[in-house]
Amino acid sequence: MRKLTILVLGLAVGACNHSSQPANQHQAASADSVLYSDIVRAVTDSLQQFPQQHALFYRRGLLLFNTHPDMALKDFEQAAKLDSSNTDYWACAGEAALVAGNHATAAQLFTRALQTSPNYPFLQYKLATAMVEMKQYASADSLADLLPKSGEGADQAFYLKARIAVDHKDTVATIRYLRQAMTVAGDHPEYDALMELADLLSTQRHPDALQYYVQAWKLDSTNAEPMYYAGRFQEQMQQQDAAIASYRKCVVSDPGYEAPYMALGDIYRNNKNWKDAYTFYNMAVKTAPTDALAYYQRALSQEQLGKKDMALEDYIKASSFRKDYKEAKEAIKRLSK
């Protein structure tokens, strides 16, 4: 089952005015080298002259957040100490603690942020997120009940409840809450939540899985992953023509994505259509030139088409990329006779 990651989406967008990506890239560089890197140096120099300027600590925290959330946390906390009434400072400190994996500290900081802005749904949501990470499910669920059930952010309450249900291994409740989240999110659902819901329904062979895969694809038609899984589901449901169409959409969306080429090759191989199988396995090899399986399948297609010399070359390549590839080694022996 896909890991439900909906609770860490939108990091600090609402509270920090700074879009970010998951930041788990803790570099080995020393603190000084980071603080005096090209992008941060100017703010660090300014802080040497104006150490009481909370806005400078906040600005440097934003610059550090993506790559060094632990260092950003210190700057956000310092900014908050200098200006304890500023909600953004406490909120960003909580976000940095959450990303750095310090969930207890995150809960404390989001609580402080809520003291400056009571009943702010975004902060309630983030505090509940930290509580879920600490497995304080009752408190998190109570906070989820405080979130609005309509309008902007209404889906967050259901995402929280879905995450709690996941942790309790309650698939029925997870699906129910994710469906509710999709309903209130309207045209702006979370990608990971859509994919999680589609995956859960797919395992149950429920036909609604397809609509959620398609909806996830429509969020970004250059992302081929949803249509690939749609094709997998359609194959599972014995809808081969529909699966082929989905895989072909993948190829158009992202020509560099190997998986649909392999899937199409497998369909044609299973149908003994070796010419078309070769075409797609060949594309897979070009897309992923170190994939042993792609070379093996292309070799198998070439062998069936009577191109044994070319097949042998590919079997050898497959074996070179996977040293323990028993089937490839057996094929090499067979064609070397």
CATH architecture of one domain: Alpha Horseshoe
Secondary structure: number of strands: 0
Q: What overall form do the CA principal axes indicate?
A: extended
Q: State the share of residues found in helices, binned by percent.
A: over 70%
What percent of residues are in strands? Answer: under 5%
Give me the secondary-structure category. mainly alpha
Q: Name the CATH superfamily assignment of one domain.
A: Tetratricopeptide repeat domain
Order of helices and strands: HHHHHHHHHHHHHHHHHHHH
Question: What is the C-level CATH assignment of one domain?
Answer: Mainly Alpha
Task: Report mean pLDDT, rounded to a whole number.
Answer: 90
Indicate the low-confidence ranges by residue numbers. Answer: 5-15, 17-28
User: What is the helix tally?
Assistant: 20
Pfam families: TPR_19, TPR_6, TPR_8
InterPro entries: TPR-like_helical_dom_sf (IPR011990), TPR_rpt (IPR019734), Ycf3 (IPR050498)
Organism: Chitinophaga dinghuensis
Keywords: Repeat, TPR repeat
